[in-house]
Specification:
alpha/beta, Rossmann fold, 7-stranded parallel beta sheet, 43% helix
Length: 254
């Protein structure tokens, strides 16, 4: 009997673009894809932070370069992509939050969150998918969404709306692009310990709410997200599209 062989998790020969890669989850995703053999291009607004990442990645023997990119500015984003070539993998990890009670939501904050989390992710997915389809190679698009795309949360109406939107366009795009071999999925983390979330953890009431919801009894670390992105980028996930991978410690199980 010849036993089946697990498809490769390795990403050798693949090129990956990762936005929001100057810190937090995006940085972790970029490091993970590079570790598994992908040539990575890290993108964010901060050139200094990107240069620091590239220097660290090159010192480990990874293949890495940087592109200054603001996904909320579609014209600038398109210009930044010129000359970068085509990609096999896209990780949309750029994201912001402007939390407030729904009754206090300001229009400027609403537009800022939607501009990055929804509009930017939508049009970057569109652009990279066009490249993949034109090249005839297919590929994997991974949107870093959130458990808050599946539930509601305190002072998170705008953030939830943006991430529910990401879930929606991901499913619709998967239906349209499957015939071209372009897979698109989301990763939905619970609260992850980063510099951006520290203020939430510093609030005793919010920290108690979080810990009551996470069944595994701890918040997530960036490392908890990295493996899911490698999986969805790889041939091991070749039959997975239009779905979400919840890395939420059991938050949404109830």
């Amino acid at each position: 009997m010849e036993l089946p062989k697990t498809p490769a998790f390795r990403l050798d020969g693949k090129r990956a673009l990762i936005t929001g890669a100057s810190s937090g989850i995006g940085l972790g995703c970029a490091a993970a894809l590079a570790e598994y053999g992908a040539e990575i291009v890290v993108a964010a607004r901060s050139k200094d932070k990107l240069d620091g990442f590239v220097e660290a990645a090159l010192s480990k023997g990874f293949s890495a370069s940087a592109a200054v990119m603001d996904v909320a500015d579609i014209d600038q984003m398109q210009q930044a992509l010129d000359g970068l070539g085509t990609f096999d993998i896209l990780v949309n990890s750029a994201g912001i939050a402007k939390h407030s009670p729904a009754l206090d939501t300001e229009l400027a904050n609403f537009d800022a969150v939607m501009g990055v989390n929804l509009r930017g992710a939508y049009f970057l997915s569109q652009t990279i998918a066009r490249q993949m389809i034109a090249a005839g190679t297919g590929g994997s698009i991974i949107n870093i969404s959130s458990q808050m795309a599946h539930v509601g949360g305190i002072e998170r109406s705008v953030y939830c709306a943006s991430k529910f939107g990401v879930e929606g366009f991901t499913k619709a795009m998967a239906i349209e692009w499957g015939q071209f071999g372009v897979r698109i999925n989301t990763v939905c983390p619970t609260f992850v310990r980063t510099a951006l979330t520290q203020s939430t953890f510093d609030d005793a009431e919010k920290r108690a709410w979080i810990m009551n919801k996470i069944k595994l009894g701890r918040v997530a670390e960036v490392e908890d997200i990295m493996g899911s992105v490698v999986f969805l980028a790889s041939d091991a996930a070749a039959m997975i599209t239009g779905t979400s991978l919840l890395v939420d410690g059991g938050w949404t199980a109830e």
